[in-house]
Amino acid sequence: MTLYEQKFRDILAEILQLDQAELDFGIYRIMNQKRKDIEAFLNNRLVPEVTKILKTQTAAGTDISAMENEVFSHLAKFFSRYYEGGDFISKRRYKDDAYAIPYSGEEVKLYWANADQYYIKTSEYFKNYSFVLPTSRRKVHFVLRDADTEQNNNKAANNMERRFQLCEEDCIAEEDGELNIFFTYELMPKTTKQDALIKDAEAKIISSFAEGKYVDFAELVNEKVPTEKNKERTLLMKHLQDYTAKNNFDYFIHKDLGGFLRRELDFYIKNEVMFLDDLDATHIMEHLAQVKAIKQVGEKIITFLAQLEDFQKKLWLKKKFVVGCDYCITLDRIPRTLYSEIVANDAQRQEWVRLFAIDEIKGDMMTEGYSEPLTEKFLEDNPFLVLDTKFFSAEFKHKLVGSMEKVDEECNGLLINSENFQALELLQEKCSERVQNIYADPPYNTSASEIMYKNSYKHSSWLSLLEDRIRLGKKLLLDSGIQCTTIDDVEQSRLSLLLQDTFAELPETVTIRIKPSGRPIPNGFAISHEYALFSKKNLGTSIARLTHSEEQAARYREKDDKGRFLWELLRKAGSNSFRENRPTMYYPLFVNTNSLIVRLPKMRYEERTSEFVLEEQPLADEQIVFPIKDDGKEGRWYYGVERAVNEQHELKAVRNNRSSFDIYRRRRPNEGVQPTTSWIDSKYSATEHGTDLLKRLFGQQEKFSYPKSVYAVEDCLRVSGMQSKSIALDYFAGSGTTGHAVINLNREDKGNRKYILCEMAEYFNSVTKPRIEKVIYSEDWKDGKPVSRKGISQCFKYIRLEQYEDTLNNLQPKNQRLDFDNENGKGDFEETYFLRYMLDTETKGDLFNLEWFKNPFAMSIKTTKDNELVDTHVDMVETFNYLIGLNVETLRYPKDGYCVVEGTTHIGNERTLVIWRNCNKVSNEDLNEFFRKQAYCTTDSEFDKIYVNGDNTLPNIKTDEEHWKVVLIEEEFKKRMFE
């Protein structure tokens, strides 16, 4: 084997991930299972293909060894230039150091290095990689202590790359029965190998254990998890490898890898292989043979790579299962018949003590005090306690939800625990063009909130993260909807261009002073601001007004049957207040000297002389009044004659010391104050009304980093046009400030605004959700305890979604060996299967399986918790409701083996009935009898569409030439999940 062939094989081994045998998660696990097939294809088909083509295309006896080396060299060069650490980077070559971008004649074109890729990396493993030891069940955390905060990203490209390394000092600490191991993530010379660093880390950690410390965690270093290459691999090494791999590989999925590489290969051959000037007649056949070999072998590699990438793209875009669905609901909305079960539930009582300090409630003559167990009278006296159905049985939840007549309408909020791309994908059918406000507070990509990125792709990775999510979010906006995106200086210019590219206009920008004292910066200004960028779906939409401040409202002291007002001089003051400025606003008024009633006389305006001519004279008890200034100069009124005629009843006259009258008008407060582009009020301080507010809610200082001022979010929602029944969406929900702001607005005017919050981080359960529960229960807090216990009636649903990694981890490809021999053409068939169809075919039953629908109430998948796969129930009913975009009215379990959902689809407005059944218990005869007893009829007009799982014998009719009224859930589920 020549060096050229070896280099080609090495490149393919890296691209096809054959060098990652120790990794047993995600796509690596699948590739490791197919390793023998891949190696057989390389050895038996691909490499020999080069020799075969060259021999076929050249004269007999020609020495082709040099030609083989040339082909292998070109193939290695071509594929290595696009592949980088698990991802293909879209560099469209033009010539040596120049690149081409797709351009369609736009006046301005926004483009970035990863523009045609999905950003799929989450920061969860980066910030907190945790796992549980299999025997002792002790928990271990890999904690990033000092992430490199290099601001000049060019430095990383200058022969430096970031690597994980064990901290030099205090690298291990046991705290509260859990083990923390600390790492840094620093720029190092490219020659520094990550494998060497983790081997060094393993040795240091093991030596720490050898000193007799951390005995309870001994299995971490003693337990063996062998691989083919390393029979002595420890459990510690397995997690070190997984931790670094999950943070270094797989940042992107290409949207069209096959198309991109094929275009690039054609360009490469034309520009770097076929040098026409160097061709001569004697060697032209040999040269064309090389071109053909490069083209054909390259195409096969591209076909296989495209299969891999398209397969991952399919998994990424697949609508994800709902793997958890519960409700938080205030007691005033719960039927009294369920109170006996509530007081008997000690887990709920403990949660109320933890969240709401109910153990401090003292009774009096009228109300019940805290006791153990709780009493039903105590529940009645505390109607805003928030019940969480996760503490109760499925039967209790079914009874509670079944008592609701308009389930979705009665829910004030929705919290989604998921990566936000997946959440937005699932919302498309149900929330398309329903959302008035999107408030998005993405990571600012500063040293304090940096996203994970490949070396030298910091800003382009960030743009790819934002772009797909902004476009998905835009589809959910009403035509009058507005997105507000907050950002600071690091990414503001790029974000503005991205929003312009998405919404067809540069966003309107507001500067908000969030830290009045400023954040000190070495050699720079103390930063006190951030930006709020407002993007309109319809460019004609107006920015709404802000409410009057207390000081502004206090000016309107007078009151009549039309409301509050103040008396304001009708004569204009200040600039442009003279007759010559507006001659049509210099006209006479008649004032009754006894009653002081003001009226407008009959008059006409003479254009020639620019003055009004009276067509009637004042009565005996009337006096003519003009807008004469105090110094005797001719002024003008505040408005013209036409408005004065309509509002003369709003005028009054007051005698002055010039033997005349001053005219006043009733000035009523308008709908609000037009917002300026600079918000500097102290209420926008993120420290006082963000960080300190969380401390008052939770009693802890560092519960969440950099929360927004709730008042800043409230005003952003106001100017974005949020009305009393609007929906607000926040797909970077963080600590839940947007939900808090919506609840505050509802408190102000008893509105019915709704909120949708998407957050994937672990603090969803420790901050986001409990914050919403707390602000529902009481409007004011101190040291983590409620002050007034003034609550608001609410119900919100919270769901958890399957994630992309979960989808990968549930795949179990068939272990089908492939034979690439050429006998009877069998090898050709298997090659085509291997290159194009293998992954789709061998994972078909894992991605969608009809067996799931036999008993949909028992469906489960494996999801990841603390880097362990655990069996997790799938809520098929809830998943399907989102897939078809059903606005649920009733959701009931009328008898064993059945679930019945009624509602109307958001798109199409179809009255819909969904019948779920356990087919192992409910036969078709049982189903037909159930329909009769429930008075459901498939042929009448009560429902436009009826969905049922399992083959059935229900009568069916066509609704049009292509569609039937009764539809199998399985068919619709599959179509919607993968469309």
Describe this structure in words.
The chain has 979 residues and is an alpha+beta fold. The protein is 36% helix and 21% strand. Helix 18 crosses helix 19. It is globular and about 130 Å long.
Give the structure's gist in a few sentences:
This protein has 979 residues and is α+β, with helices and mostly antiparallel strands.
Main attributes of the structure:
979 residues, alpha+beta, 11-stranded mixed sheet, 5-stranded mixed sheet, 36% helix, globular
Helical proportion, percent range:
25-40%
Total strands:
40
Spans where pLDDT lies below 50 across 5 or more residues: 148-157
Major β-sheet strand ordering: 13-12-33-14-30-29-15-16-18-17-28
| Range of strand content | 15-25%
Q: Which radius of gyration do the C-alpha atoms yield?
A: 35 Å
What number is the mean pLDDT?
91
